[in-house]
Amino acid sequence: MRCPFCRHRGNRVVDSRLSNDATLIRRRRACSACKRRFTTYERVEEAAPMVVKKDGRREPFDRAKIVAGLKRACEKRPVSMETIDRIASSIETTMAEQSDREVASNAIGAAVMNELHKIDQVAYVRFASVYRSFKDIDEFMHELEDLINQRKQAPASRASGAKKGDVGS
Asked: In angstroms, rounded to a whole number, what is the distance separating the alpha carbons of residues 24 and 53?
């Protein structure tokens, strides 16, 4: 392991910690030459599934692409990098646990959209606009209307009992 500051190979581990979800090991290291400290992260490398693209091409699963898409969708939104990493890790784990060694790219996109829908609806719409490649404003408006309807129904479903005038009464 080279020091990122002076490129010297000699360093020692000062501290090691397991991440909250026990998928990463965080190590603080000290360079023996320049004495500066830096952090490394270790993750178990698993056999990643192949991703089957819409056009039939196959490529190795790439977690960095998920993180990049999430960052782009969450740009200037109140979503932390911890949340983005947690979502990417969750999707990566889900895809790796599938019995098939191949996974469709649309399954990954749907999983990302599902997670974004839970945390930030603006990021969800941003991601959906690219992922679903809307052909025109009508398709985009339809997605927004669905989102608005879901939002309106959520408080109503939490209310105790149906009110007079509600649909179905």
From this structure: 29
Q: What is the DSSP letter of 21?
A: T
Q: How far apart are CA 14 and CA 20, in angstroms?
A: 20
- How far does CA 96 lie from the centroid of its chain? 14
pLDDT of residue 43: 80
Q: CA angle, corner 65, sides to 61 and 68, nearest 5?
A: 160
User: Tell me, what's the pLDDT at 152?
Assistant: 77
- Candidates 154, 164, 162; CA nearest to 118 is 154
Residue 82 is inside which H or E element, if any? helix 81-97
CA distance 21 to 83: 13
The model carries a pTM of: 0.58
Classify 17 as helix, strand or coil: strand
Could you report the average pLDDT of every consecutive run of 10 residues in the chain (169 residues)?
93 91 88 95 77 90 92 92 92 80 88 90 84 74 78 59 41
The label of the residue with tokens 């990122």 reads 4
